[in-house]
Amino acid sequence: MIQFRRLDHILVSIPEGETATAREFYTRVLGLTEIPGNHPGGAIWFEIADIQLHLREEAGERQRSKRHPAFEVSQLEQAKQELEQQHISIEYSSEIDGRQRFFIRDPFGNRIEFLEFLP
């Protein structure tokens, strides 16, 4: 049996030619720290707690998929208010016992979940 230790990183696709827009959204709007470097395939990497988010340009038609990374946060309501102040639309989905959550979309339609476990 595979002995997993933790999630290391998630790769999210962005449209070709949109790296600057992605960098602006993920650093200014979400407040993530970019990991400097010449990363494979021209990707940009960000730190989120003890995992990494990788963004990489890919050709092809995009659709509004339900695929997404989910990030656990402290003070979910505060995170929601900060995003709304940035004019980011908040979306909701089915409820899950023991946690609260909401979703946003980045400028490219990628879905991102924010969640907080209830005490």
UniProtKB/TrEMBL annotation:
Pfam families: Glyoxalase (PF00903). Residues 6-117 form the VOC domain. InterPro entries: Glyas_Bleomycin-R_OHBP_Dase, Glyas_Fos-R_dOase_dom, VOC_core. PANTHER family: FAMILY PROTEIN, PUTATIVE (AFU_ORTHOLOGUE AFUA_3G15060)-RELATED. This is Phage portal protein. It comes from Spirosoma agri.
